[in-house]
Amino acid sequence: MSSSQAPIRVAVLGCGTVGRQVIRLLQESASDLAWRAGAPLELVGVAVKDPAETGLWQELDPAYLTDDATGLARQADIVVELIGGIEPARSAILAAFEAGASVVTANKALLGSHGPELYDAARSAGVEIYFEAAVGGAIPILRPIRESLAGDTITRILGIVNGTTNYVLDRMTTEGLGFAEVLRQAQELGYAEADPTADVEGFDAASKAAILASSAFHTRVPVDAVSRQGISHLTLDDIVAARATGHVVKLLAIAERRGSEGVIVRVHPALVPRKHPLASVRGVFNAIYVEAEAAGELMFYGRGAGGRPTSSAVVGDLVTVARHRLTGGLGPGESVYLGLPVLPAGQAVTRLQIRLLVRDQPGVLAGVSKVFASHAVSIETVRQTAGDGANGVDLATLTVVTHKAPETALGRVVADLSDEATVVAVAGVIRVEGE
Ligand code: HSE
Predict the structure, then answer these.
(1) Which of 31, 127, 300, 318 sees the fewest Cβ atoms within 10 Å?
(2) Which domain holds residue 387?
(3) Which is catalytic among the residues 49, 208, 250, 275?
């Protein structure tokens, strides 16, 4: 770096947990970052909703603050967007491109729903958009997919990409507590949002799954093409039944490529065998398990949320974009040359563990197995646990695990089991993945 190198002007939009840590890193590591980038990274402003509130933060001179995100975005060489959500983040990013600035963002919801609009706008303007922090927080996963694995063919990704749900499921498993109680405690500890819908209903994971699948399969996968089920319906009985069959329950983002036929992307809870590497991902940690034709299996593991870990990925992107700016080149943009169809999740092939409450009487197993056979679904194992005969009724729990079958056939089995005379209740249905 020459001593006369003009600084690169950096604007930060949004000053929450991640924004503050990004600013802290820019200030504390200014000299190292200048050497790594090739020029000083000069903070020119910070956009916040209410500058008076953020004034409580002593480390930032109030002169940097503005509530005009779009105006600030036009005055920088690189804009770091950490506002989150769709608007005003989208407009500010588009304004940055128009003004010739590149953008670094962690905004998975915006990329999941408006990614192509932003990638196209960046390309037209001859600038870049980098978003490593949008999936897996601190974990380097998008650059490995887009660059390190560019010579390989990725066939499948299984990801634990939401820390809140992993924390809740982990504590249900290790402490035997119910969903509502663990969630309440997680909120008290600040691990879960006051409104936890985006996390526990799988919306956050679905956005990340769309970004992962788009990058891995060179195909546009919008978030609304991702089939989604959250974890709020899971009970302690589901967790206990998982343990009994040697599994743990995880919320998985699953992206699969079926040759040239298409891709299927889904988010749902699943039983993962205890011996699978994803089973050992505990607490708020994330991990992304990638299967590629030449590389085989890879796993990327680390902290998927939190201000300081996420700031590592954001500032890493910032240095990369700054380097490109100085050398005049651009990193890889959106790659959609395959344009594979996104297939309905009903075409996914999976296995189910179904828990049935049944009358403990002759012919029950025959009736139940007939339902599976009628939809050409093969049973792998059946376990029966006798009831206690309470209320003079002899009931038993049947836990049936199927072999692999199409989702649609499995769905029909579950519907027909509910109508089967000897089945008192379908107590739990959960997919089995990772085998
Ligand atoms: N709410 C997310 C999680 C934060 O729990 O993982 C990072 O996207």
Answers:
(1) 31
(2) 348-432
(3) 208
